[in-house]
Amino acid sequence: MAVAAISLNARERLMSPGLVFAGTLGQITLAYLLFMVAVFGFSAVSNTHRPTPLDSRILDSAFYILPGSCLLSAVAVIGLYWAGASSRAYLWYTAPVILFLIYCIYAQVFIPRKD
Fold it and tell me: What is the pTM of this model?
């Protein structure tokens, strides 16, 4: 009786193919949106702040890193699904959001404003 309860609990924690598919589509959409936000965000930062050449390179790299992190996290979740991972693998979907928050904090805090 206890063995059946243990296997049922382990089965409930497995990843759902529908959620993996929906999450992957969401990450592809988020990649496009983050690219657009990075482009327009950098132009806004360049108008209101004084970015150094290093700041410009960091913000330019966000054009590729932010959408790339979405695609990488989607591939990681698909790979973990195929490997039979638990539902904790869905946490990989939060990586692009965390990178975007770091991008916003960097642009607002570390780049000096124009006078």
Answer: 0.80
